[in-house]
């Protein structure tokens, strides 16, 4: 059924903008008027896929609209509540559409509802939007539909997405202050080098003597910041484009992920975060009846690192031949030893799902602790760096003055 985006006036005279599904524009107008909403403009909304040709080549993900994870989490929780309360699936989705703030998510939910009404299953309808709903989400919904426990599966999905969102929020809040300090520090340095230093060092041009090396370096750097700022911006832009193109190639992505794992401090953080995602997702999939081999095939796509994904794929091949999961993962030397031990204990005791959840809890807490520690360390490092740069600027300006005093004496 076509979807229309409209601007209208409600019964109180306030302007509203929303979407509505209807067979035609005339039917949409009639439906809105029946709800005491008087449209001023209505236009049909087309599929986002038809607009791919208009996306920019280097930044398609940056400029294309996306559905936030927080919106998916909230929708999942509300949908589980409505289904538990006895709402049919189509009616529950229809009730959630007006509650969604994002227009693109409203369109997706409307199209999912229409697909279900046309005979598709909920999982099949969601699979048409892989950029919005992950493989884990879709497969868990399919498992819930086949077992008749969709409301329980949705509750677990809501728990998972909320935990992931909470972890991301804690990491973001821990890094906000250091990043803000770094940004302000860069702006202050740019102001000093582009505006303050040139006015002070201009007095040295009439001295007629060779300036000290630090002073000459400061003047040259100041000239670059003053007149060559566009070169710096172009350099940053080319670096961003280069990294983006590098990550699109198979070898480039492999090298990029390998470099991330080898970085001191950051490599350990990347590994812990990947293991936490692996354990949380795998445990949840197994709890909902997904087979181990199929769950491993899903999990390898969400860990966020090619090397770890390859090790999971190799472990899946070994498991298919009869090996244990913990034993297979141990051969890669990428998973921490304690996570391997806990997985092996879970396999031996028959409580693999429970142990995987505990592994996820451990490494999510370690990720948060590591990020807080790194952010705490970054603050004095940034302050010391700023102090060192300012000290260099002051000394570079004072050195020629000291030499002038010695010549006068």
Please provide a written account of the structure.
There is one protein chain. The protein has about 400 residues and is mainly α. It folds into three domains: about 5-45; about 70-165, Up-down Bundle (Receptor-associated Protein); about 170-409, Receptor-associated Protein. It is about 70% helix and about 5% strand. It contains 17 helices and three strands. Strands 2-1-3 form a three-stranded antiparallel beta sheet. Helix 3 (about 70-85) packs antiparallel against helix 8 (about 150-200), helix 8 packs across helix 9 (about 215-225) and helix 12 (about 265-285) runs antiparallel to helix 17 (about 350-409). The longest helix is centred in the last third of the chain and has 57 residues, at about 350-409. It is flat, with a radius of gyration of 29 Å. The model is unreliable at about 45-65 (pLDDT under 50).
Number of domains: 3
> What would you report as the Rg, rounded to the nearest angstrom?
29 Å
Q: Largest sheet, order of strands side by side? A: 2-1-3
* Morphology: flat
The CATH topology name of the largest domain reads Receptor-associated Protein
Helix residue percentage? over 70%
Total strand count, please? 3
Strand portion, in percent?
5-15%
Structural class: mainly alpha
* SSE topology string: EEHEHHHHHHHHHHHHHHHH
Give a quick summary of the entry.
With 409 residues, the protein is mainly alpha-helical. The chain is built from 17 helices and 3 strands.
